[in-house]
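Hi all, long-time lurker, first post. I run a small reading group and we've been trying to get comfortable going from sequence to structure in the token notation. Rather than ask abstract questions, I figured I'd post a concrete chain and ask someone more experienced to write out its structure so we can walk through it together at our next meeting. Sequence below, copied exactly:
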Amino acid sequence: MVFALIFTTVQFPWFYGETGGTNLPLSLVVGAVPFVFLMISYWAMAVVMPRTGNDYVWVGRLFHPSIGFAWGALYMFIVLFVAFVGAGVAPFAYAFSACLTTLGLISNSASLTNLGTFAGGTLGTFELSVFLTILFAAFSIFGSRFIKGLMYGSWLAAIVGIALMWYILGTTSPQTFVSNWNTLLVPAFGNKVTYQALQIAGQSAGFTLAPAGFGSILAALPLASLFLLGGNYTNAFVGEIKNVKKSIPIALLLSLFFGIVYWSITAALTLNAVGGPSWMGAVGYSFESGSIALPIAPSQPLMLAVSAFPNTTLIYVMFITYLLGSLTPIFAYFWIGSKYLFAWPLTA
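-- Answer (accepted) --
Happy to help. Here is the structure in token form:
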């Protein structure tokens, strides 16, 4: 629920563009303080009432079954339409589009570029979302062995993908990134998208670096906190987890800890490769506001491809693991809804 690689697709230009390049790792550490209390609360509730469909059961027993049902129905709607659709299949389609478009750029393939454009459009996103939904439903119908295969296979791909992403970014100098960026994008889109021109355009559009200090970190907390969500959803399955007293605190607290580590390392390596928060923030700010005509999103797949260029084999492998390694959390969001349907008749 925390380590899907697609969650990095546009998060960095978005965060640094909206916060003036505020230090993300420090913001995550400060933002984790209230999350610790959230995880401890979920831990306590899971131990006292270890039931699948957790929020429905907890609210129903503490207040009233009708209140529990109303909240459970709302929560299931939120998970399906906000988490599964909004934070799962739609970002997957967007990442898939970014990968295809980037591959079209580096291989000078109009067919890949057109396919990427279609996948990122309304119809392409809808069709891919339907396909993923049917795929996940099939895995659910065929039983736990297929589900384990999907989750373990995707998790292995995620580990490989994270290692490749860190390797690519960690071995790329800002000078190499600038040279590769201009080599790849300028022939396709003109001098307006040179590395230097994009930074100047972003600053002209109004981007300014936030002053260093605790104040900017506090101002960025509403956005930084969004990076830490996900691990608490494991409680939806708590009735099916062995040895809840030991397993739940590990799942909740370690997901928070490793989430901070994962995002901090990835952010640091990405910024080091591209030349710092000034460029990333300027590009993100101007792209989000539409003030520059960058024809391709400043996405993580694009940053990785520019960094790894001209090693096309490494780029292809990176993109495959980038997508396959993101299926597990999306499936988990899909699966949560069935847990509430299961809990309603058992506790009615």
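A couple of things your group might point at:
The domain at 5-347 is CATH 1.20.1740 (Amino acid/polyamine transporter I).
The longest helix spans residues 65-107.
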